[in-house]
């Protein structure tokens, strides 16, 4: 899903396995010590959200939601990556909600503006696919009904 929007680079660029592993090991180390700093949790969540692996994205969003709920001072920085995570998972309604919250606070945020465009494009594309599927089902139904009528009139 390439884009001409320079600020939406996070939507396509993921960390290397080694980079994500560094973040994971730091998170696991602090977890084992029963004290994970907010910054470590955020960094790991950020890396997970950027991953192309859906399970990573889900875990990243879960961690970001936890930060968003428990750390009011960090909510603004969580908004973009929550929106990005939901976008990458195909949950465009939640992606739009979080991105809209960020745009309310920062209307000139270029990352959020470009992500809003990507979300809108995805929703539009999904709508076209839905209409095509519905049209295909309707056509198939019409053919089946016509076949049944033809068979009934022959007997």
Description:
The chain has 155 residues and is mainly alpha-helical. Helices cover 77% and strands 0% of the residues. The chain is elongated, with a radius of gyration of 22 Å. Residues 1-6 have low confidence and may be disordered.
Descriptors:
155 residues; mainly alpha; 77% helix; 0% strand; elongated; disordered N terminus
Give the structural class. mainly alpha
* Average pLDDT, all residues: 86
Classify the beta-strand content into a percent band.
under 5%
Helix count from the secondary structure assignment = 6
Question: How does the major sheet shape up?
Answer: none
What Rg do the Cα atoms give? Answer: 22 Å
Give me a quick take on this structure.
By secondary structure, the protein is mainly α. The protein has six helices and no strands. The protein has helices at residues 17-32, 38-50, 54-70, 75-89, 92-105, 110-154.
Mind sketching the topology for me?
Layout: H1 17-32, H2 38-50, H3 54-70, H4 75-89, H5 92-105, H6 110-154
